[in-house]
Amino acid sequence: MAIFFIVYMGICKPQTTPNVLLHSFHQVVLKNQKSYYLKNAIDTQKDTYKTKAYTGVYYCLLANEVISPIQKLKYCTKGLHTLNTCIEKNNDVEFIYLRYSVEYSIPRFLNMSKHLQNDKQALIEYAKSSTKNELYHAILSLFENIKSQDKEISNFLKQQET
């Protein structure tokens, strides 16, 4: 029972203040860095809901690096629990983006992808109304890579082109 994280994001556009944690997340996913690359970035930041959310993502990514199916499940469960707790306390769209990215990659038979539809709606709403910052580009890149599997996302991207 392996958890595979799909490489789905393109190169994010830089913004004035770089989002170190989001950038580190993309480095792990896109450049096949080990999860400790993200952990090192987390350790340089102040302890906030944001660092806690990324710590949850770190555990989910770590699940991809261990061999034991039981360890994979433990890390992923711990990571999603941490991420969900952060979203309950601070409904930041960046956290929702992270959860959607993780849950989308988890095999459905594990029944750990409960927020996909609501998170997709939140991300679409954010993308419709946001300025074109790093998170906006990350969301569009993610959607671009999964549009063939989701008609709603495909339609949204067509609307964005016009």
Can you walk through the features of this model?
With 162 residues, this protein is mainly alpha-helical. The protein has one domain (20-161). It is built from 8 helices and no strands. It has helices at 20-30, 36-43, 49-63, 69-89, 93-105, 116-129, 134-146, 151-161. Helix 3 runs parallel beside helix 5. The longest helix is centred in the middle third of the chain and has 21 residues, at 69-89. It starts with 19 loop residues before the first helix and ends with a helix. Mean pLDDT is 87; it is low at 1-16.
Can you tag this structure with a few keywords?
162 residues, mainly alpha, 8 helices, 0% strand, disordered N terminus
Class per helix and strand makeup = mainly alpha
Span between termini: 42 Å
| Biggest pleated sheet | none
Outline, from the CA principal axes?
globular
Tally the helices: what do you get?
8
Oligomer: single chain
- H/E series: HHHHHHHH
- Name the poorly predicted regions: 1-16
User: How many strands appear in the DSSP assignment?
Assistant: 0
Average pLDDT, to the nearest integer?
87
Strand residue percentage: under 5%
DSSP helix fraction: 55-70%
- The radius of gyration is 15 Å
Overall domain count: 1
